[in-house]
Each structure stands twice: as C-alpha cells, then as structure tokens.
Here is the input.
Amino acid sequence: QVQLVESGGGLVQAGGSLRLSCAASGIIYSIDYMGWYRQAPGKQRELVASITPLGSTNYADSVKGRFTISIDNAKNTVYLQMNGLKPEDTAVYYCNVRTKYGAAYGNYWGQGTQVTVSS
Here is the structure.
C-alpha cells in the first residue's frame, strides 16, 4: 500500500520561504516522476513542479525562479523549496507520485498540506 506523508506547510509572510517534504512508502514499482500540485479555494488543482528520478524538472510559469523541486531517490522523498512566496501562492499543496510497471501506471496523492501567505 503506497502512502505519501507530507510536511512543511504553514503560515508565512509575503517574501518568506517554506520547504515542503513528501516521503513515499510502499512503492514496489519504478517511480516515473514525483511532483507537487496545489489547489486554491474555488480553483482547479494545478501542477506546481515535477521531477523525474534522473532529475529532469518541470515548473509552472508562475513559480519559475522562486520554487525549486528536488528528489532523494534513496528515500523516495521529494522536496519543494519555496522562496519569495506571494499571497497568490496560498493553497493546499498535494504531493503526487506516478509509478510505472511496463505499460501500466499508478497515480498516488498525499493528503495535502496548507500553505498560507499573508500580505
């Protein structure tokens, strides 16, 4: 059973920093990628950043230059360093892991962690 445990959310003033962590356990297949999504009230969930085990990254335009995603393959853990936070970054942030076994994929989500940025 795959479990994703997130930590690191909280309340911060605009311009501040937070670091999110997501540790995955119970994964028996290859990880295709790990990533972070976010969902603000009244809005759709959107991709923030993703990373492959080889370190290839993808960022939403709104966070480029401010957020950095990294991965520890030995620990199946993904991190999101968020600097220069803005009030519009306020959302619930969800960890996402996609696994791959042959042509089959698994998709797993964390429970979400709240990030609130005050102006």
